[in-house]
Amino acid sequence: MAVALIILAAGKGTRMNSENPKVLHPIAGAPMLVHAMNAGATLDPEHTVIVAGHGADAVTKAATAHDDTAKVVLQTEQLGTGHAVLQAKDSLTGFDGKAIVLYGDTPFVQPETLQAMLDAEADVVVLGFEPADAGRYGRLVMDGTSLERIVEYKDASPIERSLKLCNSGVICAPAPLLFDLLDQTGNDNASGEYYLTDVIGLARRSGHSATVVTCDEAETLGVNSRAELAAADALFQTRKRVELMEDGVTLVAPETVYFALDTIIGRDTLIEPNVVFGPGVTVESGATIRAFSHLEGCHVARGGIIGPYARLRPGTELSEDVRIGNFVEIKNAQIAEGAKVNHLSYIGDAGVGVKSNIGAGTITCNYDGVMKHYTDIGSNVFIGSNTMLVAPVSIGDGAMTGSGSVITSDVESNALALSRAPQVEKPGMARKLFDMLKAKKARQSRGS
Questions:
Q1: pLDDT digits over 342-366, tens only?
Q2: Among the options 66, 208, 343, 373, which is catalytic?
Q3: CA 20 to CA 391: how far, in whole Å?
């Protein structure tokens, strides 16, 4: 059966104390909303509808950047979850498949759980869980395997509050049935809102079946504050570390390594302590990422050795067996097989050829204050230490630059380029200068 996702993302998130919509606060480098969209995307949905409210323009931008087929609709008044879901009705006109309602601030519902909800044999399926502390969660009132109703905590009796099975808010039902039931809901409750949960009682009274699929409490973790955001990120990192180690990645100190949602690491890669992976990083098998390195928007091929204290920025493409050493920054550059940039250098907007060696302190001077310019370094080139390559400039295959050179013109293949000011030596001047400075310091001391 075809599937539609309805993701609720209209809340302001007052407890976040932020100007930004709650669902756009990041976990592992991606908005919470994207986590929810990714979970639903595994079902290959025919439609994805995001219900936005506070910060709708920003939510729309983030949602469509991640999935340009997603449609965003507005909930102009915050009248409850049932009212929010109804805002998606027009976007699903004529759709007779199943709709799954997810939440942009509940990022960890697993694809297997959603599939189990689709496979459950009931007209309406609710995702439930048994938390360590049921607290103020809504309770699921069961009769065997049949779900009779959901009762919000504030509306529950003492007996109902003693129940352990709680409501996650995630619900699955045929779209026409879901909207028909929602059209029947009212707001005669303690909050004066239209509850999505009321559809269960309405479904049962009209002869439709309802049941519950359960999951681990961690999947239902909602984020409503900065503290909960930090806890959610910690949960993601723990899961990601375990997943990668099970896939054959060595983490020397797992608790010190941080990953993004989309980080991909090949087997037999070694990652040393205190490494951070920002969004958009792929590392192939057999690489080594040494301590205190930061990678974002880059690709590291097989056998690469990065760091320690290296920074790879977006647009970096490293071929096999490349060496990027300590205090080296690479940005928007392609480094060919076997090349080395081992010490204290910046390579930006550049290409480095096969087996070239970039000496310590080398800088590609790529920015003129208005535009970026390209540096093209050929194969088997030796760039001497402290060379300034003033782009746009090209260094031919097999060429060499002398240490301390400022290269402003193209260098032919196999040529040696030198660009230094003449050295001047003045005999005895060092002693005279020191004596003069010491005398000046003594006069200043007496004056004070």
A1: 999 999 999 999 999 999 999 999 9
A2: 343
A3: 40
